[in-house]
Amino acid sequence: MCIRYLGFILLWFPGGVTQSCSAPSLDHGFFAPKQEIYSHGKKLTYTCNDGYKPAEKSWWVTSTCENGKWSHQPQCIGESFCAEPNIPNGKYTKIQTGWYKVGATIGIRCDQGYEHKNQAVTARCQDGAWTTLPICEKSINACSEPPKIQHAVIINQEYQEVFAVDSEVQYECEDGFTTEGGDTKEFIYCLSGTWTKGPTCVRAKSDTGSDGSAGGHTTSTVSIITSFIITVDNCGRLPHVPNGDVVEQGQMFLKYQCSSFYTRVGPEKVTCNSDGTWSTLPTCEAAFCALDPARYPESNLRPGLGVEYIKEGETKNIPCKWDRWSMPVKCINRQMISRNRCKDIVRGATAA
């Protein structure tokens, strides 16, 4: 018997249905090739007239039709404007236009594990270029990728090249393997640029015995794995850090925080070593300035105020001996800096 099917045949291509792009609208410039419709994957190149430039980084730019949309919309901006900067390992809030006017300022946030080089955190658009563009470099306390361990894999964590200090990752042993402590999973921590010791995954063994060997002897194989999970309890009394406190106590680590007006130097987390000693402790260093007005009578500060404390990087208005007058003092590297004498905080007039 012969069976025939009449009707349409639907063919499905792996790439799916693709869409074409219309010619872009480009003011103050031109592009090639010039046509009304561009098929998917088709490229065009554009440039701008005198006094203008592409909102990219070169004087000519290529854009590609991708499923009905251009990979980036061709546009020409004034030569004094700035295109979006590329900040490796950093982010900033982008605007819809894709370019910035003269005088615009952006703030850059470095990714976790990176910090601002030379403390620069902002950039300003000036004469078509960004000034003091911040650089995000790997933090001295950050860790590189965790070590590869035989018969183990990292779980619940996407791959990344750099991990911020205090990061933690968890390993899981391959089926049929356990850590020396008998578990299948174990955490390690990033402390001061170095990962704590990772697990060793060994083949799980059990007691076995057999009788009836050729010589009539009984053979018994016993495997004993002895190991200790080093918890903070193994090190006894918690270590004291002057001007710092333990703010979190886990099974495997202590987390320290410095008091107000102090800054931490060294690891935030402390672990217990296998020999019963603590890992490197952080220190809490002073991060403030102490101003005693009595020591600076020439500054005309209000007498009887007592010692004023100013946090590192902060500015504080210290009252003058005249009503409504003050002197702004900033604390930088534990040194007090003031560019003005006592001045009126309302009108800004310098005192005689």
Automatic annotation (TrEMBL):
Pfam families in the record: Sushi (PF00084)
Cysteine-cysteine disulfides: 82-125
Signal peptide bounds: 1-18
PROSITE patterns: PROKAR_LIPOPROTEIN, SUSHI
Keyword terms, alphabetized: Disulfide bond, Signal, Sushi
Compartment(s) where it occurs, according to its Swiss-Prot or TrEMBL record: Virion
Keyword Lipid metabolism attributed: no
Protein name, as recorded: Sushi domain-containing protein
Natural source organism: Anabas testudineus
